[in-house]
Design goal:
Blueprint: H1 3-37, H2 46-53, E1 57-59, H3 68-73, E2 80-90, E3 100-109, H4 111-118, E4 130-131, E5 149-150, H5 153-159, E6 165-171, E7 176-183
Antiparallel strand pairs: 1-2, 2-3, 3-7, 4-5, 6-7
Length: 184
């Protein structure tokens, strides 16, 4: 067989492979494009927590003072002396699916427990670490210390365990921890 005949024969054998490869490339590109346009949200991210903040809150409106439910969920509050808190769900209860729960709490700690948490929020009240509280349930207004409040990402991270997204604020004058948490 001469060289021209061999090249012609080889092209005919490779043509179907090239067609298959091209088809696979087109299919994979289409799948990837479809995936990129609709990412699934991670419910534990701050962005999803922000989205749930805009949802309608519901709850009994009951102001609670028992420590057990808070210290069980947040072991960092084990030295709590007192607490004032409220909880409920976010969104429309008529819509099926998992619920997002919320807790807003003001917890007074003993000196040692407060000092441990305060070490996670360096700086003094009135410094760059000073923060404004997010909107808490208005039922807690009477228990809210006047501030100024301090916070840090390390403090938030310490309380944001087990799928919770939590913002934590400290009040040095009253050794109080103010927290707002969202979780499923």
């Amino acid at each position: 067989m001469d060289t021209t005949a061999r090249m012609h024969d080889r092209r005919h054998r490779l043509a179907p492979r090239a067609t298959v490869v091209a088809a696979v490339v087109v299919v994979v590109a289409g799948l990837l494009a479809g995936c990129a346009s609709s990412p699934s949200p991670d419910r534990t991210t701050v962005a999803s927590a922000s989205a749930s903040d805009s949802a309608t809150r519901s709850g009994t409106g009951e102001i609670r003072h028992e420590l057990g439910p808070l210290t069980d969920r947040f072991p960092q509050l084990a030295t709590a002396l007192s607490a004032t808190w409220m909880s409920g769900t976010m969104g429309d209860e008529r819509v099926p699916g998992p619920s997002t729960y919320w807790i807003d709490a003001i917890v007074v700690l003993d000196e040692a427990g407060y000092a441990e948490l305060r070490a996670l929020a360096p700086g003094e009240a009135g410094s760059d670490a000073e923060a404004e509280l997010p909107d808490l349930d208005s039922g807690l207004d009477d228990a809210l210390p006047p501030g100024p409040f301090v916070r840090s990402s390390a403090l938030d991270d310490a309380f944001s365990q087990d799928g919770r997204s939590t913002q934590v604020f400290l009040d040095d004058a009253t050794s109080s921890v103010i927290l707002t948490s969202r979780f499923q």
